[in-house]
Amino acid sequence: MPIQAIEVGNKAHAAFRPIVEYFGLDYSTQLRKLKGKSWACMVNLTMQVAGGSQRREVVVVDRRTTGMWLATLDENRVVEDKRADLRAYQAEAADALDAYFHQGGAINPRADEHQVNALIFQSRAQIELCQAAKGLIHPDHLEAKARVVLARGLGEHAELDQSRRPLYTQSFLKGKNLSRKEMASKAGVFGKKVKAAFIDKHGREPQMYPLDLSNGQTRPVNAYTEADRPLIEQVWNEYFAPLTLDT
Fold first, then answer.
1. CB distance 62 to 13 below 8 Å
2. What is the torsional sign of CA 147, 152, 158, 163?
3. Strand ranges for 16-149 from DSSP E
């Protein structure tokens, strides 16, 4: 695939048009669709045309955006001789995404020694943080997190007691297939009612856990486990399920 790379803000970016045309797609259409995606990062640059003195506007996208865009392409709309490559990429991307969310991480089998060593160093640092967090974080969460980190460092699947697997009210609500508007309106009140139900049942507040957000930030959230799912489901059924509207 032809990629014209340029560094923008210390991050690698690629010219978007050549990638689009490589797959035989309409550039204007794909650019319009990309502009409507919240995860897309695009930058408009003025660059000199190769082999000439003219300058023109070029849209470049970062590596993250390129990967997401490729993963969301309709394989039936790209030129036929590129479909096999796209299918292979999307299948691998689906496996990696599933492993990230349900196994705690994914390792590329083609990772070189430097990349593997960097992952090992990161895992070691996370284990040290787990050690330092003893007494501050719910022990079930801490053990599950440590098992996931160790498994990721070894390239294996984490063996977790399902009842001790971390569970958050946000992830529970996502499993209810709520719209973004419904999530925003229900999340705060739902979290408070779950916390109140937990205190009523156990006579103590749930411990806190520093949750990593998709934007790179970290915020403390109430720590529950799969063992608490029946209680959380009970709160949902009692206060929220009847209020959910069919869309």
1. yes
2. positive
3. 42-48, 55-62
Q: What is the pLDDT of residues 104-163, one digit of tens each?
A: 666 666 667 676 566 666 666 666 666 665 665 566 666 666 666 666 555 555 555 566
Whether the pTM exceeds 0.70: the reply is: no
Q: Which two tokens stand for residue 23?
A: 């797959």
Q: Give the whole-angstrom CA distance, residue 99 versus residue 37.
A: 24
Q: For residue 104, give the nearest of 144, 138, 163, 164 by alpha carbon.
A: 144
Residues listed for the chain: 247
Asked whether 7 and 47 are in contact (CB, 8 A), the reply is: no
From 96, 71, 86, select the one nearest 22 (Cα to Cα): 86
Residue 109 pairs with which residues in a beta bridge? none
Task: Give the Cα separation of 70 and 48 in Å (integer).
Answer: 27
Judge whether 106 and 96 are in contact, CB under 8 Å.
Answer: yes
